[in-house]
């Protein structure tokens, strides 16, 4: 069962079509919209400001969302937050991606269809234009994204939207096997490549 906690009389909201892993923690003023995916060990601490995942967004394993009192931390529709990222009092625009272990600080806005590279630090108040590739610590806009890169991101988010459905339908807690079965099956899934390999495949 998902770890959901009321605080100061405010209870998290999770849409019935969203999947939240049982090890994730939701506290207080949290709103998880339709078709969202929240991964294992994610922490959404709505004990000060409001946290919102809009429709189709995903927040992956060990991500953290938090914000100051009176502010909203928002991942807009189809936003994609990679493993271990931290969002604090910021806004991630529609169909944007925040890469693994990145940090996005207070009052920063990541424009629609943008990608924040893994391990980037987006400083407080930074305004990222739409369709931007953002890289570094501190993060800077490197260039405008190409259509094929945005398509790659959109397809990856679609896989997480499908994962939400697959997790609701097939994930269950079990005991581990003690040895590998003969002819062990693999999880059947459409092939997807990391962006640097995707670029090579497109060349």
UniProtKB/TrEMBL annotation:
Coiled-coil region(s): none
Record field: transmembrane: none
Entry-linked InterPro entries: Hexapep (IPR001451), PaaY (IPR011974), Transf_Hexapept/Carb_Anhydrase (IPR050484), Trimer_LpxA-like_sf (IPR011004)
Pfam families: Hexapep (PF00132)
Highest taxon of source: Bacteria
The protein's name: Phenylacetic acid degradation protein PaaY
Protein source organism: Duganella vulcania
Name of encoding gene: paaY
């Amino acid at each position: 069962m998902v770890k959901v906690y009321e605080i100061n009389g405010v209870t998290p909201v999770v849409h019935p079509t969203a999947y939240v892993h049982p090890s994730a923690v939701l506290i207080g003023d949290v709103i998880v919209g339709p078709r969202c995916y929240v991964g294992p060990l994610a922490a959404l601490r709505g004990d000060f400001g409001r946290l919102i995942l809009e429709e189709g967004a995903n927040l992956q394993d060990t991500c953290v969302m938090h914000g100051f009192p009176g502010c909203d931390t928002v991942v807009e529709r189809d936003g994609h937050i990679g493993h271990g990222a931290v969002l604090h009092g910021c806004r991630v625009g529609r169909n944007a991606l925040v890469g693994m272990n990145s940090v996005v600080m207070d009052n920063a806005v990541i424009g629609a269809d943008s990608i924040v590279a893994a391990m980037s630090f987006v400083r407080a108040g930074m305004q990222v234009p739409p369709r931007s590739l953002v890289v570094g610590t501190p993060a800077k806009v490197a260039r405008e994204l190409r259509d094929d890169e945005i398509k790659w991101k959109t397809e990856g988010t679609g896989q997480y939207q499908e994962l939400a459905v697959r997790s609701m339908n097939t994930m269950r807690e079990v005991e581990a096997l003690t040895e590998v079965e003969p002819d062990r099956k693999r999880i059947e899934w459409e092939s997807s490549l990391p962006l640097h390999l995707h670029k090579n495949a497109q060349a």
